[in-house]
Amino acid sequence: MDKSGIDSILQQLQATSALASGVKKQSGADEVASVDFSEKLKAAVDQVNNVQQAADKLSMQFVGGESNVDLHEVMISLQKANVSFQSMIQVRNKLVTAYQEIMNMQV
User: Fold this and answer.
1) Residue 7 parent element (H or E)
2) How far apart are CA 84 and CA 88, in angstroms?
3) Got the DSSP string for 8-77?
4) Residues 27-56: pLDDT tens digits?
5) Among residues 94, 88, 103, which one has the least CA distance to residue 42?
6) pTM for this model (two decimals)
7) Every domain of the chain and the residues it spans
8) Which of 70, 107, 95 is nearest to 16 (CA)?
9) Handedness of CA 62, 64, 67, 68 (dihedral sign)
10) DSSP label at 1?
């Protein structure tokens, strides 16, 4: 998963949270660049999907007996897919928590 994409999403969430709580921004340098949240989220999900598909393809090649695929390569790709998926789950959990906090705010 692209760490800069996740960092950008988290910065946007923090900026939104600060804005919702009434905290003023300190300067223009601290502002987050305007980025479409849905595009960033879709790109992150697509990247996780690509990593998982690559790991599946590699494992199928290994099971098929292709000589150019080593077991350690398969295991590493499966672990990368697992870590990226677990990271995406954590981001989703943070987004759900942020949404719930926003919905519980008193206006």
Assistant:
1) helix 3-21
2) 6
3) HHHHHHHHHHHHHHTPPPS-GGGSPPP--HHHHHHHHHHHHHHHHHHHHHHHHHHHTT-TT--HHHHHHH
4) 554 555 567 888 888 888 999 999 999 999
5) 88
6) 0.61
7) 3-104
8) 95
9) negative
10) -
Task: Using alpha carbons, select from 26, 33, 30 the residue that is nearest to residue 4.
Answer: 33
Q: Could you tell me the pLDDT band of residue 5, with boundaries at 50, 70 and 90? A: low
Q: How far is CA 59 from the centre of its chain?
A: 24
R_g of the chain, CA atoms, integer Å: 19
- List, for residues 71-103, the tens digit of each pLDDT value: 999 999 999 999 999 999 999 999 999 999 999
First to last CA, the chain: 36
